[in-house]
Amino acid sequence: MELWKNCWNCGHDTPQERVALEFFPRILEMFSKKDDGKVNQRAWSVFYDSYLFAKCRKCSAPSLFVDEYWTQTTSTEESKLISEEVKANGVSKSGNLVHSLNYPAFSKNPFPQWTHDLEETYMVLFWEVYQATALGLNSLAMMGIRTIVDKYASDKIGDIGGFEKKLNALLESKIVSSDQHALLKVVVDAGSASAHRGYKPSNKHLKSCLQIIEHLISVEKFGDVINEIKQATPKRTHNN
């Protein structure tokens, strides 16, 4: 049977050949309590998990796809319907899909090549942010981005206080432009909201914040190379 699933090696949806498929039902008891600690209401809920082991028809990379469905009743008929739909289509439209996991979650080149040459602390911070992003841990990734900004500011002007003082000092010292200062302030505010107010940025907003700090650090990294290129580039003459 051929299914279309995301291939970690190809980096996009590809036709997948089903190698094995298993189902596992989980029955959970849930209840609420009264003020005196006694049970107020008890309910049962059933989760029906499908474990699909597949192989990409393009590159032969193996993957495990785990989908967790919540069923509204303990009826075996509902579980049977879910399993039949998954067998036929790779996914069920009758069950309530509450969570999906793909293994492995890494890509062919998870970290940009330029980060390999960074100073160790920056390199590790960036790699952990990329890993958190790949796993969908957007709040954690956002906090990591804020940490990179903090380290950058501390390296440039010292540990002089909170983020506002550091960002203002970067601007006053002309280390960053007014536009960069405004962008960094947005990034720091988003990171602080993730750390202290339970904010989980969307994938789009996280990617934008990551690009802002990538640009700042990559320009810093290539500073010496840029100066070398400027020195090596022939000067214009009056005739051209």
Automatic annotation (TrEMBL):
Residue span, DUF4145 domain: 129-214
InterPro entries for the chain: DUF4145
Domain of life: Bacteria
One Pfam family linked to the record: DUF4145
Protein name listed in UniProt: DUF4145 domain-containing protein
Provenance organism: Orrella marina
